[in-house]
Design goal:
eight-stranded parallel barrel; 329 residues; TIM Barrel
Length: 329
Amino acid sequence: MKLSILDQSPISSNQTAQEALNESLRLAQVGEELGYTRYWIAEHHDLPGLACSVPEVMLSYIGAGTSKIRIGSGAVLLPYYRPYKVAETYNMLSTLFPNRIDIGIGRAPGGSAEATNALSDTFLQQVWDMPKAVEELLHFIQRDFPQDHPYSKISAAPVPDIAPEVWLLGTSKKSALLAAENGLSYAFGHFMSENDGKEMITQYLDAFESKKSEKHPYVILTVSVICAETTERAEEIALSSFIWGIQQGKGEGQQGIPSIEEAKNYKLTENEKQSLEKRKQKTIIGNPITVKQQLAELKKYYHADEMMIVTITHSPEDRLQSYRLIANA
């Protein structure tokens, strides 16, 4: 089973943002040692508890500290940016780190309405124009604009020997069909979706096959996982991220991911208890044998080619150990 890492660069209640970002590098290094296929880092804006707002800067840091694991964005929030600038940025990374760069493209705001407005006056319009932006980005990456196109004479320099690989990330029918239409691999965010992921992936595969392209469809399923030596310990560790998620929903959580003790002492309302149970249902929690089995079942059910794991814990050591146990299993 191919395994990969999605890192949201979480900040724990006893950490600085700098420490959290250094732990992201350590995670990528450990992932490389363990044989994980790729490491992606997410883009978030003004979200307390998450340190990475500029993936391309972190990818320079991650790339310099690793040697072979594929690295990329999960995702570049394309409605904020011009495709040409994204192509320049990731061509630059591909020049520095040949045959290792992925451009994961998404359309989510990645933060509050205020942060969205601060980043762009036209975000909603750009979401609407996403298909055009994806097409333009691909032309810059593949260097195949029609000769009469106004951008046909410019390149997104530096042009690498091996172009970065473009992915589409999403949780909707729109994203699935857009990926298929452009012949792109597709990453479905199971961990953040209430939609029927199997339906989306089936639509992607069917639409891709109907194009009769020389390319082949490829699916990553991104899943939230907490693994520990015992299921009891994994459930204890997982409580921190669940409580933090509930705090975020209330406009709290500015102090970062609470410790296990802080999470245990947090007073929940009845509605919050129900919310916690829903969060548990979307997360694989257990010992290595249980986690391996559930990952295999999800992979088969969703027809996924690769499983990408996101893990948020208070302790960086618990997070690294979770990835170690899964890889070893």
